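Problem 12. The chain below contains 478 residues. Write out its predicted structure in token notation.
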Amino acid sequence: MKPEKEILHNNILKEHENNNKDLIFDKDGIQKTMKLRHYLGDGVGQVALNSITGLIGMLTYFYTDKVGIAAATVGTIMLLTKIINAFTDLIMGKIVDSTKSKYGKARPWLLWTSIPTLIAIVSLFTIPADGSSTIKSIYAFITITFASAIVYTAIAIPYGSLMAMRTTSSEERGKIGITRSVFGYIIGMVVSILLIPITNMLGGDQKAWIIVAVVLGVFSCISLFLSFISSPEENKGIQKIEDDANIPFMESLKLLFKNKYWVIMLFVMLQINIMYALNQSTGIYYTKYILGNENLIGVMGAVGLIPVFLGFIAVGPMIKKFGLTKTARIGLLLGAIAALLRCFMPYSFTAALVLGGITTFATIPLMAIGGVLVNNTVEYGEWQSGKRLVGMVNSANSFGVKIGNGLGIALIGWVLAFGNYNGTLANQPDSAITSILVLTVYLPVILFISCYLLLRKYDLDDKYPEIVKELNDRGTIM
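Solution.
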């Protein structure tokens, strides 16, 4: 029966190729499930995630310069919350695999977290500014933990899992990744470029930040609802997840760490998100103290849209020509070269625009397909162990995003504190200037090179079609 099945499958593929149609199977012979409305509806869910991470990324500046919390304290708070995240991510992965509802396993979480997302975003900025240092620190710790370790986790892992539950096609997963990245980058750029000018326009005080948070919170709530109504779980592999839902938690963890590609992506996502956090949160320090004008962050951000736009145009054709992983490696190598050149011109505004633009372009491929590379390890893990752990696998993506983001933000606080940075001073000491340059110019070089070397070990692309074919023959996915 197996040869007859293969012959029939190949004949169907040949017929569609001859008719120049690509509506049912992708180039690897894997069945498609997605339409345009599904991509758009799925992508808009990224607005909530990037609103939370973008605003948390700006909290260091808000806390140090607006409500007077010491930079080292902020850095420590950020790290502690991310340590908590390390556990809630893995727990949430298990919860997703065990969820049972009429809407599916991952999809209902987009609905259930919509209102908590609004509450979490606004609460970040309602810190009692007149309270003691202890009160402010405790409030910051509680609200950041709620926003990142609870709400963000309850969105990110189900949302990431939807990619594997919607389709097994790498081609469709790649398009999902690109669409999500476009939506996410748009809201991320809105936060990084417009937050300071808008809050300054509204008075620059805590009330101004709260107003902006309310607006972003409402948009995030709506985006999750829209994503919920447009994301049916259609992959028949869901039944396999159902069958594997009772695997003990510790056994699931052991299976994850036996999946070498999952481990690679765990460390890649961690490091690339340290870089994202640095890029998103240190620009204000660079423009204010290195270039002497904090409003230049808007100019740099606006110019920075050009490489972003070009990156999203290029990433699709690059994936088609080079494949998923090689596209990401090309971007990282380009970023490493540009970042290294910038080290020789750290005070140059032109270098910041041009070479900084190239490094921005270089991060787009991994931003677009990082989640795809994570989700492709689902099938590898199932092929390796016979267990399909979609939620647990996606904990790598969320774990890397949040731990990396948290470490990045913590590094900002610690390095600034080491350099004797004081947010109340108009002119910083030389040591503080050096610490800002370390964060904005020198550290990205190391991160680019490290991620590139890790992805040199990720060779799943060539194996993936055959793995999916074998799983189909086993009857575990369709």
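Discussion. Residues 200 and 269 are 33 Å apart (CA to CA). Students who got a different answer should revisit the alignment rule from Section 12.3.
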